[in-house]
Design brief:
Length: about 90
């Protein structure tokens, strides 16, 4: 299975629901969806089965830019935290 992207816009917010396996090759499309969605964006990760390291870094970057991550699995959440810590250590050292 590949990645399916569903966008649901309401008054002043947009939720982008991601379904399936998310890999680096999907990031350009997702970036475009986020840009076109306005200022208040949430990514619903409930049905994401698998991610790669580039996706984890991208999700961490999105979060620092104000994008909300909904239903993020514990393993992805932990991985985002580890990537942030590693980046911080590389910048400090």
């Amino acid at each position: 299975m590949t990645l399916r992207i569903e966008r649901c816009s309401e008054a002043h917010s947009t939720t982008i629901r991601l379904i399936g396996r998310m890999q680096a090759q999907h990031l350009a499309e997702l970036e475009m969806q986020i840009r076109e969605s306005g200022s208040k964006v949430a990514l619903d990760l409930e049905e994401v089965d698998l991610v790669d390291v580039e996706v984890v870094r991208f999700l961490g970057m999105c979060e620092t830019q104000g994008v909300t991550l909904l239903n993020c699995s514990p393993y992805i959440r932990d991985w985002i935290g580890k990537e942030r810590l590693e980046k911080q250590e590389n910048n400090d050292g």
